[in-house]
Amino acid sequence: MRDYFESQGGLAHVVKLFEERGFINKVRSWISTGPNLPLNSVEALQLVGWPGILDMARKADFSVENLRERLAKLLPAAIDSATPNGKL
Length: 88
Known about the structure:
This protein is mainly α and 88 residues long. The protein has helices at 2-7, 11-31, 41-60, 64-82.
């Protein structure tokens, strides 16, 4: 996932991109010090997009569906842990 963040210009750029894609409340919950709003596999695809999902699946040797499920669980936690004080 770190490779994805870096390839997209870093965490701040990824957060901005996710907000622009309509997930502002979810993303802000992951950054804040409160509870994280959940993400499902369809939303994970909408956040990352098909090219990103296909590239990550290929690199990780996962099926697209498996990767989407993993991203749905890992993205909120990854952004939350990268912003421990509620700031980028």
